[in-house]
């Protein structure tokens, strides 16, 4: 799914110029997970350039096995959230990165009120990034992005299988398929199929 097509309707962790920490007690600026928007099909190359520049970043990908007509099986990294690179940096570093020719802009929260400088820059909380990366690396079924959020339902914890320990919410689709949802605030939810026998409610 193209990140540019997402209609943001949920509250997010919003970062405005006034809310940035100038520095901590030890003089270290606070880092946030920002979402850099790049051209489609350039996500991996953009992330490589950012890594070489010393930034902590990643592209939301999942290992897929594709079978050629000859029967040959090839493992590829499928980009789950297109046109997006997650980068962990300070606001000062973000203002430098946005000037790179391969970065189009940083995602803002369209649902938030405008400020003098425009829409506030949005971030993703650390825990949601950790959950997303865990799901991408361990799910046995394809992970997708839901560009809308659901009402808060019963929270569950996966107790067996490759996603053991992951916490999220369960949704039953129109087809009767149970899906585990991990919230990503402004992006909506990451989801994958889950068997209800593999989860337990969080009290």
TrEMBL record:
Keyword Nucleotide-binding: no
Keywords noted in UniProt: Transcription, Transcription antitermination, Transcription regulation
Domain of life: Bacteria
SUPFAM superfamilies named in the record: N-utilization substance G protein NusG, N-terminal domain (SSF82679), Translation proteins SH3-like domain (SSF50104)
Annotated ranges, domain NusG-like N-terminal: 32-131
CDD domains, alphabetized: NGN_SP_UpxY (cd09895)
UniProt keyword Transcription regulation present: yes
Entry protein name: UpxY family transcription antiterminator
Origin organism lineage: Bacteria, Pseudomonadati, Bacteroidota, Bacteroidia, Bacteroidales
């Amino acid at each position: 799914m193209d990140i540019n097509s997402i209609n943001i309707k949920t509250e997010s962790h919003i970062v405005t110029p006034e809310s940035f920490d100038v520095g901590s007690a030890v003089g270290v600026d606070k880092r946030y997970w920002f979402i850099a928007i790049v051209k489609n099909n350039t996500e991996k190359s953009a992330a490589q350039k950012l890594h070489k520049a010393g930034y902590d970043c990643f592209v939301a990908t999942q290992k897929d096995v594709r079978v050629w007509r000859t029967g040959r099986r090839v493992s590829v990294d499928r980009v789950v959230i297109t046109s997006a690179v997650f980068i962990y940096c300070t606001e000062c570093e973000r203002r430098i990165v946005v000037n790179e020719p391969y970065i189009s802009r940083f995602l803002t929260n369209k649902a938030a009120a405008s400020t003098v400088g425009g829409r506030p820059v949005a971030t993703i909380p650390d825990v949601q990034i950790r959950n997303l990366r865990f799901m991408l690396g361990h799910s046995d079924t394809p992970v997708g992005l839901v560009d809308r959020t659901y009402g808060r339902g019963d929270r569950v914890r996966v107790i067996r299988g490759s996603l053991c320990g992951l916490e999220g919410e369960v949704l039953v689709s129109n087809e009767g398929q149970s899906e585990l949802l991990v919230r990503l605030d402004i992006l909506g939810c990451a989801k994958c199929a889950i068997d209800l026998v593999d989860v337990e409610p969080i009290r």
